[in-house]
Specification:
globular; single chain; 503 residues; 3 domains; alpha+beta; 18 helices
Amino acid sequence: MLGAWRSHSDYQSFLVENIQPIYASDKNRVLQFSEALSKLYNLDLDVLKLVLEPYYSNTGSPAKNQPEVFRSFVLMSLLKCHSITKWVYMLHHDDLLCYMIGVSPDNIPGVGTHYDLINRLWLEDPDIEKDRQDSLHPFKRKPRKKLAKNQKLPPRHPGIIQKFVDLALQGKIFESRPEKLLQQIFADVAVRPSANAGILGDIEKLTISGDGTCIKTGGSPFGIRTCDCANKGIFNCDCHRKFSDPDARYGWDSYHETWFYGYSGYFLVTYNEELKSDIPIYLRLVEAPRYDGVTAIIALSEARALYPDFVFDKFIGDCAHDNYPTYHLLNKWNIKPVIPLNKKNKNNSKYQGTIKINENGIPVCMAGLSMVYNGFMKDRNRIKWRCPFATGKVDSCNCKDKCSSSDYGRTVYTKPSSDPRLFTVIPRGSDEWKGEMKKRTSSERVNKRLLNDYELELSKTRGKKRWSFWIMIHSINIHLDARLKKSKFDFISMLDGLLGRVA
């Protein structure tokens, strides 16, 4: 059962009360943790109790210090400590760290208590998880064939994106996924408070970008042999083996042009122009060879269910998302797609109209010039295009008299329903399109923050459960960064003010 839960206001009082004497006697010591103190002081975990209560029994020994253990993980992430054992050792030798997570030096949560919280938040049958961990699995060799630069692994099953789109339109998502509670915690502890603080902007008109990233596991791809082939002189066998990370797979890293062993992370991110901050709102870990275009359908479905009060206005993705089923789904959900055309799909067009268009789906006039976007007519679901000469985009036109005698110039219309891939609501090549496409790198920058700034891969973690947990913790810290940037709160300045009043 869930034990006594110290409220956020009580934690804040505890923190100030215990940090004040240390700050008064050793100011430089406290200054080292200025940023961490400011973040923890503002991390309200009261909502976490409401999320966790249904997952604890009403009987048995109470689970103690649950908010303190969660806060302990957040501080681990901030201080880039990757070992729980090492971290607990540090707590036992530093009273300041104890006070920061909300415990006294004689009541430090143990290593097992930390691991127990991770296990509780993973909604998978422990027996099934243990059976998969202990059983033997096929040995897969590293692929030898390399792909071209910036080329991604194609979907393993033809038509799989369409199948997922059909399920999404029926409202079917993966409700039994083991990471569901982690996603809910992230939404309630990080995303919604940021939304309330105005960090996400207008939640009824959100622009989100989606992208995947490669995550190398700490587990070995060779596994542990249990066969006797070596005794028979066979040292290169393909017998089933035991793996420390049985869910890890080989995937292709298109950026570094190499194969990696681990997982693919897929995140939905929004960008705050005022703060110049990239804010993750949805996190998912999938198999390494999973195609981003497939994961995007799952991600969008789960994100819409996770945030029923959010309205996703635009979705920005790379060319891996350039397929007709995805455009069809986005149009059904009234989400404007901002996706570059995949050069491999150059001849894959459904448009059979009489208007001549260029490779970006923009109508071309008689003189061979791209016509000018003149707005989207929502009532008739069509895009209006005008003559480039009449709109002043070009100084002269040899076909003016042949084309139209009107000073307004020739006008044509394209309909997204004719070809949703070519005729996007925000026309390709328009100023608005270019402005939105610049935001696509926000998802890439979040990937960079997780992998580099918070040293995700250096933890040498094994297993989808722990990878998913740490991605959530690091992402919470990204939200705390943005909140501090907006509020400009500083714990040290607050202490100075309190000590000044006391004096």
